[in-house]
Amino acid sequence: MSTQILDNALGGVGHTPLIRLDKIAQANGLRCNLLGKVEFMSAGGSVKDRIAKAMVEAAERDGKLIPGKSVVIEPTSGNTGIGLAMACAIKGYSVIITLPNKMSLEKEALLRALGAEVVRTPTEASWDSPDSHIGVANRLQREIPHGIILDQYRNVNNPLAHEFTTGPEIIEAVTSTPSTTSKPSSEKVDVIIAGAGTGGTITGLSRAIKKKHNPDCIVVAIDPKGSILAQPESLNGVVDDGQYVVEGIGYDFIPDVLDRSDVNTWIKTVDDESFSAVQQLMKTEGLLVGGSSGSALAGALRWLKTEEGQVVANTPGKNVVVLLADGIRNYMSKSWFLKIAMEQEPSPLAATITQLLSRKENPKETHTPEALATIRTPTPASH
């Protein structure tokens, strides 16, 4: 986090904190350090701010963006679009974002608030269909004068942004935090875990850490069931319903920026465990994360129970970093979040409040601790 005045919001991209997830670690019997890289604290609200900034600035250096003329067009699941819309609002470029229908209303609203035009496309359209968000973006680019697709799926600045910013930030946080008796540390990034969408994040993180910091770091990529990114291919078995609700990870093709040789192991996740992990992060760690962050944590906890993972889980001082890609801001109208927030079983405290407020109040009555103790607090139901 900068302590100086920034020239504009792009100066607030990245520089996000690495936070201990001690309560979740304790609840799962982990002896290693479980750490979350909290990307919703970036200026545009997600890890994708980094690649948006990098792609725009590289295109400007290369003369591909012409002030006052260029129209930036991008197919995206939303967060890259928000980052691009923010960057282009600052720099003065027009923006068109093509967005599959399943993506949240909040993402569209934020895009429009930043001045972008939004075109929705059928979620079920395959990536190479002319009706998909990629196909529609390509058509618009062909027909709109000075239209340019920066193309997060092929743009080398996608993984480079993480190799040069996200990865080094994680390394610096880990290496600059001394090992102590109460909080031992290997002072290395021993495991890095992140969801895979375009794959630029996991690829860039792997290269940053393995090239210059710890070649033995274990890189774990998370892929939702219904996506085909994982290896071996047998992990990507046919599911009854190929559509997954979680946004921002998984694809029906292999993006060019994803180098699967940079990944040591893949974990497949399902929606229910992802959203349960979101709830854990909120209720125990106070982190208001989005669905793909839940996928990353759920995958991390699953991997830590494997034979390889248990060695790490049972070693004090080992540092396991989970990338938490975005915040809940983009998903608050989604049914899965409303279920978490609004349809929970009443807590014992809620029952106590109901009992107190249902009694007729005596203006002269003083609610001493002894008086309040006479109101029985229900025992929490076992689950």
From TrEMBL:
Pathway: Amino-acid biosynthesis; L-cysteine biosynthesis; L-cysteine from L-homocysteine and L-serine: step 1/2
GO BP of this protein: cysteine biosynthetic process from serine
Keywords: Pyridoxal phosphate
Cofactors (names): pyridoxal 5'-phosphate
Domain Tryptophan synthase beta chain-like PALP, chain residue ranges per copy: 11-312
Reaction(s) catalysed (UniProt annotation): L-homocysteine + L-serine = L,L-cystathionine + H2O
Enzyme class: lyase
Region (Disordered): 359-383
GO molecular function: cystathionine beta-synthase activity
Enzyme Commission number(s) of this protein: 4.2.1.22
Composition bias, Basic and acidic residues: 359-368
Entry superkingdom: Eukaryota
Gene3D superfamilies on file: 3.40.50.1100
PANTHER family: CYSTATHIONINE BETA-SYNTHASE
Family the UniProt entry places it in: Belongs to the cysteine synthase/cystathionine beta-synthase family.
Name of the protein: cystathionine beta-synthase
